[in-house]
Amino acid sequence: MIKIVKASLRDIPAIQSLAAEIWPVTFKDILSQEQISYMMDFMYSDTALTQQIEKQGHQFLFAQRENKNIGYLSFELDYKSDTKTKIHKIYLLPETQGQGVGKRMFEEVTRIALQHGNNTLSLNVNRDNIAVDFYKRIGFHIAGEENIAIGNGFLMEDYIMECSITQAV
Ligand SMILES: CC(C)(COP(=O)(O)OP(=O)(O)OC[C@H]1O[C@@H](n2cnc3c(N)ncnc32)[C@H](O)[C@@H]1OP(=O)(O)O)[C@@H](O)C(=O)NCCC(=O)NCCS
Does ligand 1 come within 6 angstroms of the Cβ of 90? Predict the structure, then answer.
């Protein structure tokens, strides 16, 4: 059985260990090793995750199977003071992908976002990530694209994808 539970500051090591397993596999054909290490450091260091949770209003959820964490999602309500919920991260262990868990996590965020009065989910995804097709499948469309310079000469080459949540995803 899959459970979706809230995570907090004390779960930072668990988030980091999932990321360390999932990121290299997800991005091996998309980004260089150097860029993967660089991005993991600035998004998943103790300092970065603490800031996201304490200062930037990011909320983390775990997906659990038999009480074991198999993935995480983070989101931010009222993104940029709009009625949007931004999904910052969603990552599932490779062996658990394709079993409906990602969709379940989005259903949970949709419920929370609607309850809060938000009407849109928004996210960034690398333009070469096959997750683009997952997002389309669950109701997202491409709303734009942006290249974000993240330092050290690295770029994030993203689509911005959005989904209206006045109806269920
Ligand atoms: C992207 C991710 C979160 C999707 O979660 P998932 O549990 O694997 O997807 P689900 O099993 O819930 O799929 C839901 C639906 O999307 C479809 N789908 C999933 N991945 C797909 C893909 N790559 N292409 C087309 N359809 C896809 C499924 O077939 C399913 O369709 P159905 O409802 O008709 O049965 C997960 O695969 C993952 O963690 N990937 C690696 C990390 C990553 O890239 N994260 C996104 C960073 S922006």
Answer: yes
